[in-house]
Design a protein that fits this description.
With 400 residues, the chain is an alpha+beta fold. It has a single domain, classed as Cytochrome p450, CATH 1.10.630.10. The protein is 45% helix and 13% strand. It has 17 helices and 13 strands. The strands form 4 sheets. A 6-stranded mixed β-sheet has the order 1-2-3-9-6-4. The protein has a 3-stranded antiparallel β-sheet with strand order 5-13-10. A two-stranded antiparallel ribbon has the order 7-8. α5 runs parallel beside α17, α8 crosses α10 and α11 packs antiparallel against α12. The longest helix is centred in the first third of the chain and has 22 residues. The protein is globular and about 60 Å long.
Length: 400
């Protein structure tokens, strides 16, 4: 891949995984975009891309920027991963092809139609119960509660132990970064959480009719191997909960701080999908991912060496003023569909339709009952090396 642009030899000692940067990444993102098309991060010995043009180009060129060497800082060419690599996130063709094709069918819009009515009813019941009180925590009582209510059922998980999904996913996304305090915080529970998650992936543990059973049925047909089936189920459990929880948190925060946009949505509920994608662009729940150069490659005049790690700042690309008008504004009049919050190209998030259906179900239920929503206190961030998340968000609502 060769991308045109101003040659850059910029070098920074900034740490994108420092607590203050994770708390507020926007200043560093602007610094990186302004520094050049490619910026060398001295602390980690990696090249960084923060402008939309170059992030998008790298995401869509899997032949040059591989995922199979790991989408975190660790380089699987030289380092042993802490768990078997994901067949979706950490694989390239041809190994990536069959698992991707199977999940695309199982999680596609057509396959999800049967869940629409049930999820809408679940959302109405949850929202009706929560908004009886004028003040509540939008993160714990909505953004976390709804996905943990509907997604495990859709996969076919047992009821017991579902509380382990969030800390397991949190550690998995922390582990994409450096071995810092956030990784150390989750390390004591890794064995326990991994054992439970691995156990849930077995054929006999999954309820009939769910996503998990459909994956095993694909193995029976020969679309994937029996060895691949539990790994694909595990990929669902690793990436299918935390990311949606934090995307819903971003959406609720956006509306709590933009009352005019909430009025706009209530006047035209068809904007629910636009609202979700705009929130993903605006907050970028998945902030960063790594790729590895498969050869010496020139990007905007800078050569990234074969085997070199590239840190793509998805959040920075989604607020790049070179691509977006007024990028810091949350605006339902915008077409946000080109955002890279779900990735782009071959490795674009295969579960994004599930997340959209969850968001649309929850938004529809809220729009029916809530005239106005605002912050009732100071929200508190949850820090993660890869994800931009909220730990708590006190809100106040006025219901119809």
């Amino acid at each position: 891949m060769t991308v045109t642009g101003t040659p850059s030899t910029a070098s920074l000692d900034a740490d994108p995984f420092a607590p203050d940067v994770l708390e507020d990444p926007l200043p560093l993102q602007a610094r990186l975009r302004d520094a050049g098309a490619v910026v060398y991060l001295e602390r980690y010995g990696v090249h960084a891309l923060a402008r939309y043009e170059h992030v998008h180009a790298a995401l869509t060129d899997w032949q040059t920027f591989q995922s199979a060497a790991g989408v975190g800082l660790a380089n699987f060419r030289h380092e042993e991963p802490w768990r078997p690599p994901s067949l979706l996130l950490e694989a390239d063709p041809p190994l990536h092809d069959a698992p991707r094709a199977v999940l695309s069918r199982i999680l596609g819009p057509r396959a999800l139609r049967g869940l629409r009515e049930a999820w809408a009813e679940d959302a109405r019941e949850l929202v009706g119960r929560v908004v009886r009180r004028p003040e509540f925590d939008a993160v714990t009582e909505l953004a976390q509660a709804f996905p943990l209510r509907v997604f495990p059922d859709a996969v076919g998980l047992e009821r017991e132990g579902r509380h382990r999904l969030l800390p397991y996913g949190d550690h998995a996304f922390n582990a994409f970064g450096p071995p810092n305090g956030l990784v150390a915080r989750g390390a004591p529970r890794v064995a326990e959480l991994s054992e439970w998650v691995d156990g849930q992936c077995a054929r006999e543990r999954l309820a009939p009719g769910g996503f998990g059973a459909a994956i095993w049925a694909a193995a029976d047909r020969g679309d994937i191997t029996e060895r691949q089936a539990p790994l694909i189920v595990r990929s669902l459990l690793t990436a299918g909960v935390d990311t949606t929880v934090h995307a819903l948190g971003a959406l609720l925060y956006a509306f709590a701080t933009h009352p005019e946009q909430w009025r706009r949505l209530r006047e035209d509920p068809r904007l629910a999908r636009v609202a979700f994608d705009e929130a993903v662009r605006w907050e970028s729940p998945v902030q960063t991912f790594f790729r590895t150069a498969t050869r010496d490659v020139e990007v905007a005049g800078t050569t990234v060496p074969d085997g070199g790690k590239i840190l793509m700042f998805l959040g920075a690309a989604n607020r790049d003023p070179r691509r977006w008008d007024e990028p810091d504004a949350f605006d339902l009049a915008r077409d946000p569909s080109a955002h890279v919050g779900f990735g782009m190209g071959l490795h674009q998030c295969v579960g994004q339709h599930v997340a959209r259906l969850e968001a649309q179900s929850l938004l529809a239920a809220l729009a029916e009952r809530v005239e106005h929503v605002e912050l009732a206190g100071t929200p508190r961030r949850h820090l993660n090396n890869t994800l931009r998340a909220w730990a708590s968000m006190p809100v106040r609502v006025r219901t119809t």
